[in-house]
Amino acid sequence: MRNKQKKMKGNSGFTLLELMVGVAVAAILLTIGIPSFTSSVKQNQAATDANSLLRLLTLARSEALARGQTVTLCVSSDGSSCDTANSASWTEGYLLYYTPTGSTTAATLKTEVPFSKGSTISATSAFAKAVSFNGAGSAGTLDTSNHFAAATDTFTVLPNSLPKYTRCVTVYTAGRVSIKNPNATTFSCT
């Protein structure tokens, strides 16, 4: 009995060689796994930001249909007024508002500043600074006299300046919004 107890006491734990092999295996697994994980995080950031934009555009259209009047979503860095400067970007934030019938003062529905912390969000032309939905749910723009003009445009969601993870959010004249992957060769949304 005594011999067995002495042998058991002497065999507890790992040898230095076993620990070194374990550390080496862990280092190899981390070296392989971390780049894949980083790639997955960036891809998810693009999907999250594109889905947030889709949700926001759908909310704007729903509000326009429910109120029977034009609702506008615009670039806003302060959450209280629309930015019209050429340097203004959707990444800064947004303001969702409408002007009640018979009023000259806009009513804010929703605002968020900044809109994205991980992606650059831009529109190519018509919706570069604002997108509006009229009471029938059609998408377009408002001129300086608040006249609605139907339009279609595409937002580009570019996460951390990595084109291969780009997502395209298209708003069609009828008000339908969709997300798609960009051209596989050029990574552009056009």
What's the short story on this structure?
The protein has 190 residues and is α+β, with helices and mostly antiparallel strands. It contains 2 helices and 10 strands; from the N terminus they run ααββββββββββ. Strands 3-2-1-5-6-7 form a 6-stranded antiparallel β-sheet.
Query: Could you spell the SSE succession in H and E letters?
Result: HHEEEEEEEEEE
Quickly name the level 1 CATH class of the domain at 15-68 and 117-180: Alpha Beta
The fraction of residues assigned to DSSP E strands is: 25-35%
How would you write the strand order of the largest sheet? Answer: 3-2-1-5-6-7
What is the CATH third-level topology name of the domain at 15-68 and 117-180? minor pseudopilin epsh fold
**Would you count the extended β strands for me?**
10
User: What is the overall number of helices?
Assistant: 2
What form results from the Cα inertia axes? Answer: elongated
Q: The biggest beta sheet, please?
A: 6 strands, antiparallel
How far is it from the N-terminal to the C-terminal residue, by CA? 81 Å
Query: Mean pLDDT, nearest integer?
Result: 85
CATH architecture type of the domain at 15-68 and 117-180: 3-Layer(bab) Sandwich
* pLDDT < 50 stretches: none
Helix/strand structural class: alpha+beta
Helix content: 25-40%
Radius of gyration: 26 Å
